[in-house]
Specification:
Elements: E1 2-7, H1 11-24, E2 28-34, H2 35-41, E3 50-56, H3 58-67, E4 77-84, E5 87-93, H4 95-102, H5 106-126
Antiparallel strand pairs: 1-5, 2-3, 3-4, 4-5
């Protein structure tokens, strides 16, 4: 269900490299949520780092939405760069498995597989 790789890079460098990999692979970053900073700003003693990148390929998103508008709740794809016990990791919930649990449409399954290959490639390029 998850695709997570460990990076030898510091958190900030892995985040920057993911941002660049997203663009190289024809996707765009819609927003970056700095979850660690948000928690700390609310007075929570959170020592790990976590940035959630909302990424999207407009053509693929349009295919999904044209088939089943309810799937807007599963978009955009999210890739996280985070630390865990001193190690930087990059990961996502696999789009093909997630979509399979929401729809049995074969065409959508193919779109999800294509998106999964690209998002995994982005992660691998960033580690």
């Amino acid at each position: 269900m998850y695709y997570i790789v460990e990076s030898s890079k510091p958190f900030a460098q892995a985040s920057d490299d993911l941002n660049a990999a997203v663009a190289r692979n024809g996707f765009g970053v819609l927003h970056i949520h700095d979850l660690g900073e948000t928690l700390r700003s609310k007075g929570i003693a959170f020592t790990e780092e976590c940035r959630i990148f909302e990424v999207c390929n407009p053509k693929q998103a349009a295919k999904v939405l044209a088939t089943d508008m309810r799937l807007n709740m599963a978009l955009p794809c999210r890739i996280s760069v985070f630390t865990e016990k001193g190690h930087t990791k990059i990961g996502l919930i696999k789009p093909a498995q997630m979509l399979a649990s929401l729809s049995d449409n074969a065409e959508l399954g193919e779109v999800a597989k294509e998106v999964e290959l690209k998002t995994k490639q982005m992660i691998d390029e960033s580690k």
